Amino acid sequence: MVSPVKHSNKLLPVEQLLTTNAQQKEESWLLPYLDVFVLLTMMFIVLLSMSSIDLLSSQSKVNQQQETISQLQQEIEPLRQLEMEGRSSLVLQHWQERIHQVLDSLKLRDDIALSLEDEYIALQIEDRMLFDSGEASLKSEGRQVLNNLLPLFEMAAGTILVEGHTDNIPIETSQFPSNWELGAARASSVVKFLVSQGMDQQRLRAISYADTQPRASNDTASGRQQNRRVAMLLRMPDTE
């Protein structure tokens, strides 16, 4: 009697091979996927690094351009300043000549000195033309002088500075305790007269310098005469 064949739990070699091949086939798709994933990751890293390099390069170029622009601006600014100063100087010289012509026509060229002070043309009017000695009220001749100069004052741009100056000889009266009060009162008298003639008071400033800004030496009578004055500082327009 033939004994029945007992099946062993152990697989035969062929069966083991087939089983192994099946498992390998089931898992074989992971390898290409992993390769693709690694490749994509590498490409992403490369692209990111290239982008970072481009950004750094672009930022470096921007910084270089900004430095170049800054250097050019530093070089141009002094030239621009010189141009403005040169233009301002030409404008002042032009107006100085024009004002001299006006003074010539009024026969005041010898009595009113002109000087350039920063952006202003200063008319130095000796006190004897406007006031009696030690007084601050305009005399009739002084009002006439200012009235003749009124069109010139009206042509000025911006604020007109009216400065009262004295010599260094002290004055001490009940009305003027010192040269400061005398200079202030004389400058104020000129301002009040110009306002009475229609000038805008907002454009006028009265200032006293007493004897602190002499034009000449106070050691001589002629020098002291030059120092006793009212200075009218005009800022003239760039164009007529």
TrEMBL record:
Keyword Transit peptide assigned:
no
Species of provenance:
Pleionea mediterranea
Subcellular location as annotated: Cell outer membrane
Q: Which residues form the OmpA-like domain?
A: 117-238
Annotated keywords: Cell outer membrane, Coiled coil, Membrane, Transmembrane, Transmembrane helix
CDD domains, alphabetized: OmpA_C-like (cd07185)
Q: Where are the transmembrane segments?
A: 36-56
Instruction: Note the Pfam families from the entry.
Output: OmpA
* Protein name listed in UniProt: Chemotaxis protein MotB
Instruction: List cellular component terms (GO).
Output: cell outer membrane
List the InterPro entries hit by this protein, alphabetically.
Bact_OuterMem_StrucFunc, OMP_bac, OmpA-like, OmpA-like_sf
Give the main location: membrane
The cross-references to SUPFAM superfamilies, in alphabetical order and at most eight, read: OmpA-like
